[in-house]
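Hi F.,

I've been meaning to write this up properly since the lab meeting, where we talked about keeping a consistent format for the predictions we share between groups. The idea is simple: the sequence comes first, exactly as it goes in, then the structure tokens exactly as they come out, then a line or two of notes. No screenshots and no reformatting. I'm using this chain as the first example so we have something concrete to point to.
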Amino acid sequence: MIQGRIENWGEAPSVIDGPEPQIQPGQALVRMLATSLNPVDIAIAARQFYGAVPPPPFIPGNELVGEVIESSEYPAGTRVWCHCTTGGFAEFAAVPEDRMVPVPSGLGDELAVALGVAGIAGWMAVRDRADLTLTDEVLVLGASGVVGRVAVCAATSMGNRVIAAGRNERALADVGAHATVDLTAEDLAREISAAAPEGVDVVVDMVWGDAVVAAIRALRQNGRLVQVGNASGPMVQMPAGPFRGGRLDLRGYSIYSERFDAVAAAYAELCRFAAGGHVEVPLETMRLRDLPEAWERQVRFATGGKKLVLLPE
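Output, unedited:
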């Protein structure tokens, strides 16, 4: 069985021929149809993840879409999205039965997995954490990536005005936002102010760093900052005054902090939108044997705004 393998903390995975997993009580055996590479996979391998992770050696891979081979919860042949901390980068995986969601028949394997961790992050950050009202204006930082693209869709589909900020001008052009901002601008705060002269009510942030400091200045009274990712690094110097003066809220989002019934509901809703052609996720497919190359690209954020999806041999 072809599988990725992390031999030591901080190292990239190798690809080996290993044994098929043996399921334990509470697990299902699933044949992988598509798996997706996410920044959290890099963090897990670097021992920078806040949750429980098995010691090396282990098979990385945070999610997969697959066909049930053996399960006490689902009939054999059921196609499911599986959220598993590790184990997804293999032709067969033993996954927790309470972390599986059936995939609608109208969705291809590649899109179904791309809508998983990344899609749910963009969707739930807006639909669950932002507490949007119809009059709220929303600024999405990192909108040229998959999470940001879905966040834009989640807000615009509710009728909100959205400003999309990102580094990839070509990707920003087709995310469906009402205005765009270049995150590389020399005076980012001024660019945001030009796009939203009266400020915004919600910032959905996949970037952190200097971008979020500039965005805070645009938040209106009682504004909300929903923190989803830190592509610019884990640390930032942030002024305290605007939070007190503006009565601002800082809200975190992580799929690992959400009840899985809420995650499953968000995934099902997002899949319905995508099946109806209302959510587009740019993706690039590679083979499982190309995992080291895909991994290196993810580390450098050299994905061109696309979700890297790995298919079995």
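Notes:
The mean pLDDT is 94.
The chain has two domains: 2-115+281-311, 121-254.

If this format works for you, I'll send the rest the same way.

G.
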